[in-house]
From TrEMBL, chain A:
PROSITE patterns linked to this entry: FAD_PCMH
Pfam families: CO_deh_flav_C (PF03450), FAD_binding_5 (PF00941)
PANTHER family in UniProt: XANTHINE DEHYDROGENASE SUBUNIT C-RELATED
InterPro entries: CO_DH_flav_C, CO_DH_flav_C_dom_sf, Diverse_Substr_Oxidored, FAD-bd_PCMH, FAD-bd_PCMH-like_sf, FAD-bd_PCMH_sub1, FAD-bd_PCMH_sub2, Mopterin_DH_FAD-bd
Name assigned to this protein: Unannotated protein
Keyword Disulfide bond tagged: no
The keyword Transferase is annotated on this UniProt entry: no
Keywords: FAD, Flavoprotein, Oxidoreductase
Domain FAD-binding PCMH-type, first and last residues per copy: 1-171
From TrEMBL, chain B:
Keyword set includes Cell cycle: no
Spans traversing the lipid bilayer: none
Protein name, per record: Unannotated protein
Short name of any one Pfam family annotated for the protein: Fer2
Length: 282, 176
């Protein structure tokens, strides 16, 4: 086994082409658990945490932002990133503990592609775009085409996830989740809701209740017809409840060691109702 | 890029010193290397999955779970363990009663306020509290709670740990 520690993206891609079976590691907070419990014995590792290019974020001319795959969650919790993408800040703050948020990254979340990954519902709600790079080409893929299933994604073996582009919307957005305790918990169910007033659209994405993150397009378009998303300030309780019910219909939860399908379906209806009520409180 | 690290020697920068790691499998966690290869048993291993915080160390100024860091990927990083805190904070060192070695003001406050029972979580908490107070010398109650939310203590009920943090804040304020 070897561990390569490239300092640039191009060094990392070279290391990957000479070792196509190598596992890429960002903060390590997922992979090290597998290694510690002898579930994974990697042959070769390429550690990306010292690549400075991956640890920055930029504002684009169209108003969107591009966050490097190696930016740790703790940087998304506060400051300008929090103002631009408040739902991402809320999601980041629910990832593990401060220790995990100092190490864990969006790139790692995307690479692992667990349906319970806290960053992913936000990326689905805002229609984020994933940047992939190989020695030959760079390509950009909608998050909806990137995540294929439980821990499966569209990254090719010779590619590195370099960044995510996130549109900055104009309207309320938030993230919330249910777990067995308040701090430091893996989601039993999670939801991100984002409103974009100029396009009169509402987006809701669910985590941990299906093989991929689920966008509830039927509930979204139903609400758009019931309610003026750009001028309203308060949503009636009945409408919020019905929205929650419709969101739950689009979830595809299973029974597993963390919860039951029935409870998850109930939980997402409550989460959706809560989020839309927070968006339109009074 | 340096040559990839194989199963030969590599070197970590721990508590201000370069420490050679020899005859180790390169997939080992930083926690394992600190304890078993470098003779630094301060960081404790409990859950090995980032839930308990008893293995907390500082890496490049961030508090991280050393069980979730692959040691070989920490080459070139500054690592500080609970054993290195006195040296890192010389002005805050005091001689503890009942023990002969020096401790930091945070460690002394844990002793004085009774923030230690079985003691297993204590080294991780000490590192987390140092990290908090270095960044935020006058935290709110919520900030203290959030900053140690990744450190689980099953004995104290946390009350005396919060009292210890508050005591350090007051002493540091008075001395500044």
């Amino acid at each position: 086994m070897t561990v390569a520690i490239p300092l640039t993206i191009s060094e990392a891609l070279d290391a990957l082409s000479s070792n196509p079976d190598a596992r890429l590691i960002q903060g390590g907070t997922d992979m090290m658990v597998e290694i510690n419990f002898n579930h994974l014995k990697p042959h070769n590792i390429i550690a990306l945490r010292r690549i400075k290019e991956l640890r920055t974020w930029t504002k684009n001319t169209d108003g969107s932002i591009t966050i490097g795959a190696g930016v740790p969650y703790q940087e998304m919790e506060t400051g300008e990133l929090k103002q631009l993408v408040p739902a991402l800040a809320e999601a980041a703050r629910t990832v593990g503990s401060p220790q995990i948020r100092a190490a864990g990254t969006l790139g790692g979340n995307l690479g692992t592609c667990s349906p319970a990954g806290d960053g992913l519902p936000v990326l689905f709600a805002v229609d984020a775009v994933v940047h992939l790079q190989s020695n030959e080409v760079s390509r950009q893929l909608s998050i909806h085409d990137f995540m294929l299933g439980v821990k499966r994604n569209a990254r090719n073996a010779n590619e590195i996830i370099t960044a995510v582009t996130i549109p900055v919307l104009n309207g309320w957005q938030g993230y919330t989740k249910v777990g067995v305790r308040n701090a430091m918990v893996i989601s039993v169910a999670s939801a991100c809701l984002a409103v974009d007033k100029p396009t009169k659209s509402v987006r809701i994405a669910l985590g941990a209740v299906g093989p991929t993150i689920i966008r509830c397009r039927d509930a979204e378009s139903w609400l758009t017809q019931q309610f003026d998303l750009s001028t309203s300030t308060k949503i009636e309780l009945d409408l919020a409840k019905e929205f929650g019910r419709r969101v739950a219909l689009e979830s595809k939860p299973i029974d597993d060691h963390r919860s039951t399908a029935e409870y998850r379906r109930h939980a997402v209806s409550v989460l959706a109702q809560r989020l839309i009520t927070r968006a339109y409180p009074s | 890029m340096n040559d990839p690290i194989g199963n030969e020697m590599y070197s970590l920068h721990v508590n201000g010193q370069d420490r050679a790691v020899m005859d180790a499998w390169v997939g080992e966690s930083l926690l394992y290397v600190l304890r078993e290869r470098l003779g630094l048993p301060g960081a404790k291993g409990a859950c090995e999955q980032g839930e308990c915080g008893s293995c907390t160390v500082l890496m490049d100024g961030d508090a991280v779970c050393s069980c979730l860091v692959m040691a070989a990927t920490a080459v070139g990083s500054e690592i500080v363990t609970v054993e290195g805190l006195v040296e890192q904070n010389p002005t805050m060192a005091v001689t503890a009663h009942a023990i002969t070695s020096q401790v930091t003001d945070v460690q002394q406050a844990f002793i004085t306020e009774g923030g230690v029972q079985c003691g297993f979580c204590t080294p991780g908490l000490i590192v987390a509290v140092h990290h908090l107070l270095d960044k935020n010398p006058d935290p709110t109650e919520l900030e203290v709670k959030e900053s140690i939310s990744g450190n689980i203590c099953r004995c104290t009920g946390y009350g005396r740990i919060f009292a210890a943090v508050e005591a350090v804040v007051q002493v540091r304020k008075a001395n500044s």
